[in-house]
Structure formats: structure tokens, C-alpha cells
Amino acid sequence: MAGMHRYMPNPGYLETRQxxxxxxxxxxxxxxxxxxxxxxxxxxxxxxxxxxTILNPGDEVIILAPYFFEYLFxxxxxGGVAIVANTTDRFRLDLSAIEQAITPRTRAIVVNSPNNxxxxxxxxxxxxxxxxxxxxxxxxxGTEIFLISDEPYKRIIFDGMEFPQLxxxxxxxxxxxxxxxxxALPGERIxxxxxxxxxxxxxxxxGGFSFCNRTLGFVNAPALMQHVVRNLQGVSVDPDYYQxxxxxxxxxxMEMGYDTxxxxxxxxxxxxxxxxxxxxxxxxxxxxxxxxxxxxxxxTPGYFRIxxxxxxxxxxxxxxxxxxxxxA
Length: 328
Ligand code: PLP
Fold this sequence. Notes:
By secondary structure, the protein is an alpha/beta fold.
């Protein structure tokens, strides 16, 4: 195709943005258009572009523990201050903790469902509760609080559940996501930002995202991958592939006596460490060649994260080490 390697408009090819918008509109019932979409170098770039655009120095961004560790750096990159609110002991939304975290400086809250590391998927009721709280706090403080929905795992969801959409119940909302997980293309760096079509100043916001995509040095998402994903909207890896692995590991952990929440999506398990020191526990596991991440890195010491996005033989091999560690 002539010119396919040229520079392009910074938000990406219009045909690709229209394809993304079409699928989002079908799935959410919101009237997304191509202009509401900015193609990005994955969800990480999407989050950085959004934060660069909306934050003034000292603005606060609420994140929910356990959180994806890199949020701390993304927020810091753009002069923001991360404010951590805990979730419940089963990792559900804790609205009173979020309410306490909101101040007149709150500019955004980042919500990640299905969640890395807990595997929790927030229910429609939890989302409506959060939206009501944010609307009430905006009115109380006379501020604008963005809900940033980080949803790269939204198609990796189990037991026939449908993904509860976050945007329809709250207008000041933005999706940051990628095809790293649903199309298993993390190395290709392809994702997007989607602005809620009901956000009143969406054109201005889209202009800011386009500008920051360029000036942060991403310029635009990779051309070739934009052509690829244009035809793959709504397509996904088979979630059953991960569900089988979840079932295997969850059952094994329960039989061994670990305390863990049953994941509803993504590809992680987040059990309680049997000893208080999660770092020491992960070092114990390493002696048996089992590599997991201590909960401290996710803002919740005392837990550890297992990624079951690996071959079955790796999981089968890990069970022995996990059993040995819990017995010790
Ligand atoms: N957000 C969450 C919750 C993630 O788990 C990840 C990657 O693991 C990202 C964002 C970044 O994704 P990407 O590779 O698309 O930048």
C-alpha cells in the first residue's frame, strides 16, 4: 500500500479509530466516534498521555491498593501526587476509603478491572456506587474528577461473566487500554485512549491527548499494528485457556491451605503469604524455582502475586514448591 510507512495524524488512522469506536459503541451503548479515540503505544503510553494532559503540578490521583506498581511512576512523571486508597479485605471497592481520599486537589482516580494483581472484576453495583460518590464529591468541591478506567484485561473474564462497563455511569471518564492481553501482543505496543462521548469538552481533551502523544515522544502508535488491529476489534484470545489455568492453580492453592480470592478475570492470583514478611516468603519460594512477586510492590504487604500466564508444566512444577513453602 503506497504511503503506509509515512507519518500520520498523531491520534492515528481515522479508519482504525472508527473501528475501535464502532466496537466500543456496540459494547457500551455510548455513541463513540472516531474522534473520541487516540491510538497509543499500549496502555502504558495511554496512561502517560492522559496524565500529562489533565494534571497540573501537585494534583492528586487516587489509586486503589493493590495497584499496578507502575501507576506510581506514571503519576510522578507528570507532577502528580499518588494517593492510595485501600480496597476491602476481598479486594472489592471500598467507597468510604475512596471518599476519605478525595480532596479539593483530586484530579483523577484510576480503576483497573479486571484487576492486576487480584483478578477481581468490579460489579455494576460497585461501579454505580463509585460514580455516585464521584459526582457528589465534584459538586461538593466544585472540581472535575476524571475516572481513568485501565481495562487491558476486559476480554479475559471467566465463568461466562459479562464485563461491567465503567463509562456509561460517569461522564468524566476515559478508557486507557491495549491489545497486549486480549490479542496477546504486548511487544507490539498497540493500544488506545477512548474519551466518554458524553464528556462535555471532549474535543479539547482529544486535542490535548493528540498533542501529548506527540510531545511525550510516542508521536503515534505503530502504523502496521494499527492496520492489524483495525480488523480485530472485538476479537480476543480464548478466555477459557486462562480459566483452565485459574481453576488448576486456585484448586491447588485451596487444597494446600492458602487463603486467596478466586479471580474473575485477568491471569493472576493474589494469595495471602503464610508469614507476615512477603519478601522473605517469595525468597523461600525462589529456592524451589518458583518466581512470584511480593505484595509490597502492589501496596499491600503480606500477599504475593502468581501469574498463571505460563505453560501448564510451569504451573504443575510450581505446585510442589508452593506446597513445601506453606508446610514450612
Ligand atoms: N495496566 C495494567 C493493569 C497492566 O497490568 C499493564 C501491563 O501489564 C499495563 C497497564 C500496561 O500495558 P501495556 O503493555 O499495554 O502498556
